[in-house]
Every structure is written in C-alpha cells, then in structure tokens.
Amino acid sequence: MLLPNILLTGTPGVGKTTLGKELASKSGLKYINVGDLAREEQLYDGYDEEYDCPILDEDRVVDELDNQMREGGVIVDYHGCDFFPERWFHIVFVLRTDTNVLYERLETR
User: Which residues form a coiled coil (predicted)?
Assistant: First the structure.
C-alpha cells in the first residue's frame, strides 16, 4: 500500500515546520522543507534584488522531488502550493493562526 503524501502550506510563522517535523517523528513519514531543499541543492533561478532573496526554480524543485513523491510517504512543507502537481498529494493542510500570534512569532525571527 502506498503511504500518503501530505502538503503543509500557509503563511510563514503559522507552524508548518513544527507540525511537519512532529508528524514525521510520530508517523515515520519523510519530512521535506522545500526552502531547505532549495538551499541545499541550489534550486534557484536568479536573485530578486528588490526583495533581497533568491528566486526559487519551481521546475527544478518538482524534478528534484518527483521520485520521492511517486514512492509516497512524504510530508512537504512550503508556504505556497501552486506549482506542485495535484497528483502528488493525498491531502493538503492550509495552516492559519491569529494575526497577533503570527506577528509575535515573526518578530522573534
């Protein structure tokens, strides 16, 4: 039986990473933070001077993840979801939190 693939998405600071790591530790599923993956594998397509950050090469991210996603059992953590193939995920969770809580979390980063 194929293990499920799960996408955790939402605004930065809502708890995607915390939840993803906890789910992975309790379920045995593999946790992948797309931001970390992109940094480790240099999956970028330039640099945005205005926002002072690298530009994610979405096609390369999809290519990098495709085999693992076909095997199943993956928890993916990313703040967006529009470029991932729908067929990859069995369920998608969009995390949210109160704006006051979010502000406090982001202020400490």
Answer: none
